[in-house]
Amino acid sequence: MWSNFFIQEEERRRADTVRRRAQRTGLARERRGPIKLALLLAGMGTALAVLAVGTEFWVELGTKRGNGTSGVCEAAHLGLWRVCAKRLWLEDLPPNRETCGPAELPGEANCSYFRFFTSGENNQILQRTTKKELGVAAAVTATLALAITVLGCICVIMVLSKGAEFLLTHAAVFFSLSGVLLLVSLELFRQSALLARTGPGPAPWLGYEYSWSVACALAAAALLLLGGGSFLLLALPSRTWGTCCRQQ
């Protein structure tokens, strides 16, 4: 009898301890799951955004396959920060490809950061040049989007650790804004990568295609917008959901 009494008393104390901890945090246990799921979506979007912004495979450029001399052809790939010019062996190209590429093939590579970040000059890429002002604006916008995602993650951590549920609205705004800024950065980069000829002579024909970094940026923007919308729904008071359910 006494053993059962002590066991029940210990269980009661543990339940009281758990209840007091929940009261201190101010966050119900059933709300932690949806918040963590929304944070997972936003975290995946943040990881893809970092991968896209940090790599230089946004656009791939390549001359025609028949323009190569001495068994090589010229290609290039660029991102927000760097540009890489490559000389690829014709025998390594896929047989059904008309342009020089893809850029992941092995070959002589010459990579450098864009000059407009250092000396303020434009880079010449296969006798063409990018638009400096739009390139700088795209890089700054993408960096700002990453900084805003960090603020959103901090808000969610404060919600989970301190129970400050009012920060869910701030997290929703931060993640949604970062997704929109990524889309703006993509459009600015698209406009800056419309290359112009640098000299009076004829420039070689170039193939122009988007690469996997752009796909990462688009997926990141979609996940961040989805995460921001999820946090916005979670920020609605429970009375709103109860009213909607009663009306249905």
From TrEMBL:
Residues annotated as transmembrane: 37-59, 136-160, 167-190, 210-236
Compartments where found: Membrane
Keyword terms: Membrane, Transmembrane, Transmembrane helix
GO molecular function annotations of the record: calcium channel regulator activity
Pfam families: Claudin_2
Gene Ontology biological process: calcium ion transport; regulation of calcium ion transmembrane transport via high voltage-gated calcium channel
Keyword Chaperone in record: no
One GO CC annotation: L-type voltage-gated calcium channel complex
Topology in the lipid bilayer: Multi-pass membrane protein
Keyword field contains Transmembrane: yes
Domain of life according to the entry: Eukaryota
Protein name per Swiss-Prot or TrEMBL: Calcium voltage-gated channel auxiliary subunit gamma 6
Organism of derivation: Vombatus ursinus
